[in-house]
Structures are given as C-alpha cells and as structure tokens.
Amino acid sequence: MIARVSDQFPWGPVRIRIESWRCCRLTDPARFEQDHVHHVYDAIAEHFSDTRYKGWPVVEDYIAALPIGSIVGDIGCGNGKYMGPYDHLAFLGCDRSGALMRIAHERGHDVQIADGLCLPYRSCVLDHALSIAVIHHFATPERRRAALAEIARVLRPGGTALVFAWALEQVSRKRAFAVQDNLVTWKTTARQSRKAANDRTASTYERFYHMFVQGELQALAAEVPALDVIRDGYDRDNWWVVVRRRA
Amino acid sequence: MRYFSLSATRVNTERLLTHNMLQCHVKNCRPNESFPLTIKDPELERTEAEFNPDFMRGLVPKLDWTALRKTAGALGLGDLPAEMPEATDEFLQMLHALVLETRVVSGSMVCDVCHHVFPITNGIPNMLLQADEV
Ligand SMILES: [Zn+2]
After folding, report:
1. Which of A77, A163, A198, B84 could pair covalently with A131 via S-S, beta carbons 3.0-4.6 A apart?
2. Residue B15 in 3-state DSSP?
3. Distance between CA atoms of residues A155 and A147, nearest Å
4. If you measure CA to CA, which chain A residue comes closest to B100?
5. Is the pLDDT of residue B8 over 50?
6. Which of B3, B27, B99 has the most A C-beta neighbours within 10 Å, making it the best mutation to test the interface with A?
7. Which parts of the sequence belong to the Methyltransferase type domain (chain A) (predicted)?
8. Which residue range(s) make up the domain with A54?
C-alpha cells in the first residue's frame, strides 16, 4: 500500500487516491513511474537542480579512487553534479528526464536521454558506474532488480558500481516514514520558480519512492546473477552498496 | 594525491568517444550488426580539451577501433589504418583530437539494421524508445 506523506491535505480525499495509485503502480508500473517520477522531474528540474550541488562524501571518495583512463557512467545522473569534469576519467551520464539533461548539458557534461531499464550502451563498455538516488524511483521490486541487471550488463567483468537508495531508517529527518512505498511531496514556491518568467505560482508535486530497509539493497543486488556485493553501508539516510560484475 | 582538476569551462557535448559506446537497443534488433550507429546530417564542433597521455593510454583499449575508423571515414575526418597503430604520443594526440575534442552538436544516429533514428538535439542524443520497441 502506498502512504502519502504530506502535511498539506486532509485525509479524506487522500484515501480515495491511495486506491487508484496502488492499482496503477502494480498493474502499470511504467505509466505510474511516468506520472510520479518522470513528469515530476521534468517539471521541477530547475528547482531540483538548484538544490543539488553538494556531493555526498561516500560518492566523492568512490570517484576519487577510480583509476586513470576509466570510462564511468552515471546512470540517472540528474544535473550531473558528480560528473566533474575530471581530467583522468571519461564520464558519460544519462537520465530519463530531458529537462535535467538540458541542465547537465549546459554545465558541460556529455549526457544522453535514456531509460535505466534499457540503456543505450554496448555491453561491458563501462569500467565503473554510479546509480545515486535512482533505483528507489522504480515502482516494483522486479523493475528495481532489472535496473541493477542493466547496469551489470554494461559493466565490464571486474567493473564496479556504487548504488545509493533512500533508507526507511532515516536518522536526520524529523518525520519518520511508516511504510516503504511513499509519495513524497516536492513544493516549489512562487519565489523558487522565479526563473520561469511566466510561472509565478506555487506548485506541489509528488514523487514515488521505495524506501529500502536494512539489508534489502544488498539482497536485491545479490539477486542479479552477474553481481557480487563487495562493500555496503549507510550514509545520510541512504543505504549504499558497491557491486562488482563477475569475471 | 588528487588526480583530477576541476574546470568550469570544459564542454563535453556528445563526443565521438560517446558515440563509440552507444548502440541500438531496440528490442530484437541486432546490435552487433548495427554498431556503430550511422551519424546523419551532423553538425560537428571541435572544442579544445587538455591532452593527457596517460589518460589516453588507458582509454585506447576500450575503443572499438573498427567502429571508430568507419565513423571517422564517414564524417570525413580522415582515413584511419585498419589496425590500431602503436600508442606513440603522436598517435595518442590524434586520437585525443578525434574522440575527445570532436563533438556532434546536432544531427541523428541511425541504426542500419532496424532503421531507428536517434535524434541529437543541442548536443544531447535522445535514446528513448517507444513502449513497443523495448
Ligand atoms: Zn536497431
């Protein structure tokens, strides 16, 4: 069941919509993700990007340790905040959101609009990959596993990927989440949408998140035959794993 | 030690390096036969990037030489030898200019097997497929 996290609406109308979300999420997950992930990111891209400039240390340490000449794919790269530019790495990035890709491109990154379940890269072509705050947006366990399997396909044997996903166990948030599948509101105020000259209105959007419980990300990665989990941890309200493609 | 340096001015629009990594992923297409995607109506741009021989040496074995040779020839960027030459500094500099400094600003990439067209707009390839193509 999907709980709705909002302090803005009364419970009455919400309960009716919970039913329709639940049906759609399980019967037509692709459509559900379109409504509750892709369209939202396209709509909030600019405001979202303005809030995404500070990198997480675990990610930056992982990138800093990659050997010179590595081809690195940031799968679900958003505004490209982890893509450098670096002198010693060849970074490619892709994301489902065309609006975010235009922002990443303006920042000088080499990016493609692509679907995480059907990546446009040759098999075994990446030395390393990032999947930062991406797979929690897929609506079902099958699709989250398929997203990891697709990353495994494009990694070379021995190549590694760092995967971050939002945790149910959140230490830094005031509000606890009761269930794993949530619609989380994103509010843009009139002030925040200042860059869009015609848009002076405040808007509320809802993004779908599957929040991982302890051990779940490791178990999901272990279900992908080509992958071994070689490191894992918890950082800033997220579970993370480093996976390696088997030789 | 930090290997990397940050610079704000670097432009990394679709490089030929990236083109060398992309393939047709339409369901039931034969990516091995259709690779590389044919670049149609390209608007090319050359932007200077800093040459780093160690980086290039690391990159060389990851390139598909046959595909790069075909693409360079089709774009009129020069005739590459059939076999990849030895990694001399001169060769690495040529390769650097070809795969890191040569960029496709607009045009499209076409699959020679299933004829799917992947448009490149403002330097961004759109690799999304319709639901019935996945
Ligand atoms: Zn094809």
Report:
1. A163
2. strand
3. 13
4. A90
5. no
6. B3
7. 74-162
8. 25-174+211-245
Left, alpha or beta for B122 (phi > 0: left; psi -120 to 50: alpha)?
left
Using alpha carbons only, give the angle B29, A96, A55 rounded to the nearest 5 degrees.
130
- Which of B20, B21, B104 to mutate: most A Cβ within 10 Å? B21
Q: Is residue A6 part of a domain?
A: no
Query: Which of the four pLDDT bands, split at 50, 70 and 90, describes residue A151?
Result: very high
CATH code (residue A53): 3.40.50.150
Neighbours of A28 (CB within 10 A): 13
Q: A194 in a domain, yes or no?
A: no
CB contact under 8 A, B11 and A108: yes
pLDDT at residue A144 above 80?
Answer: yes
Tell me the C-alpha distance between B108 and A106, whole Å.
Answer: 20
Q: Report yes or no on A185 lying in a domain.
A: no
Number of domains in chain A: 1
Task: Say which residue the tokens 């948030």 belong to.
Answer: A173
**Rounded to whole angstroms, how far apart are CA atoms B68 and A168?**
46
Give DSSP secondary structure letters for B29-73.
--HHHHPSPEEEEEEEEE------HHHHHHHGGGS-HHHHHHHHH
The closest alpha carbon to B16, from B74, B84, B86, belongs to B74
A167 forms bridges with which residues in the sheet? A212
Bridge partners of B118, per DSSP, are: B109
Weakest-pLDDT range from A56-60, A67-71, A127-131, A171-175: A171-175
Decide if A237 is inside a domain: yes
Q: Encoding tokens for residue B106? A: 């607009």
pLDDT score recorded for residue A53: 74
Interface ipTM: 0.89
What domains sit in chain B, N to C, each tagged with a CATH number?
2-126 (2.20.25.10)
Token code pair at residue A115? 């679907």
pLDDT band at B3 (very low <50, low <70, confident <90, very high): very low
